[in-house]
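Late entry, nicotinamide-adenine-dinucleotide complex.
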Amino acid sequence: MELVTGGAGFIGSHLVDSLVDKGKKVRVIDNFSSGKMEFLSHHKSNIEIIRCDLLDFENVNKAMSGIETVHHMAANPDIRLGTEVTDTDLKQGTMATYNILEAMRVNGVKNISFASSSAIYGEAKEMPTSENYGPLLPISLYGASKIASETLITAWIGTFGGKAWIHRFANIVGPRGTHGVIFDFIHKLKKTPDRLEVLGDGFQEKSYMSVHDCVNSMLHLIEKTDNDVNLFNLGTGDTCSVRRIAEIVVEESKIENVKIEYTGGKRGWAGDVPKTFLNVDKLLRTGFEPTRMSEETIRDCAINLIDEIGLK
Ligand code: NAD
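Prediction complete; structure with ligand written out below:
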């Protein structure tokens, strides 16, 4: 049995789909803060769903019984929230990871696959940024909680044994997305179809990986690598600017004469890293190839979300 924390979320629910497709039995823990039951409602007998907060150790401990691998996807995914409620990432990131690791130790569960982020690199001086880059100096509270979780994981493996896969994601986009720049732009256009406000100067540049490539690469790495700690950047090896994303979303919305307005400044919000570009050579060397690069991923995602959100 596999455990997916945050299994009702965007990435988690796609991961559940893939695990079930591979014939695995899956247990999901989710508090449904941003996850949705409808993302899992197509599954019948192969999954168990436990509505529980990861901060509730007793129930997490019970849910760990009989688990082979924990896929730890749950976290507050919204970097901006960390600036308003400053203990969000400490609790939903660092403490939640501690509870997972401790419940694993108590139950003798040996394998963990963890959703980390490019946010741990902060404003890296090396582009594209490889896994060996350091020192790691995140500039968001979210990034701090991800690097804290990574270090707790390696400490647990070093002390109690087991195996870890740490995946440092680029921006992941696709169907069922519930946050992020493309999602925000579509919602803004729905509200004010004549104008689109872009936070920052629009020159922010990031890599965008499709959620299907993200899930497939995680499962590929679990299958193909077996060091005690397996650390990989997951991304596409190219970038796309926020300006280009705004243009693509407007094009796909088919709304005419939209005025794109920039709020200015190099960051979208405090803690936003203007440019992230992950070096994914290590991932490619394992034989995994993303099916889509950033722009194509963004366009596909915009088409899907416009349909899901009902812009047309
Ligand atoms: P998401 O919000 O859709 O998924 C997170 C899920 O975790 C949700 O279902 C939510 O209800 C659940 N959850 C949150 N806190 C919980 C708690 N305390 N107890 C139980 N359940 C809880 O976000 P996502 O984009 O699917 O992100 C999945 C993981 O990937 C997160 O760890 C996120 O930090 C990481 N990540 C995502 C991206 C991206 O671009 N989407 C990039 C880098 C890293």
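The chain is about 40% helix and 20% strand. Will revisit in the morning.
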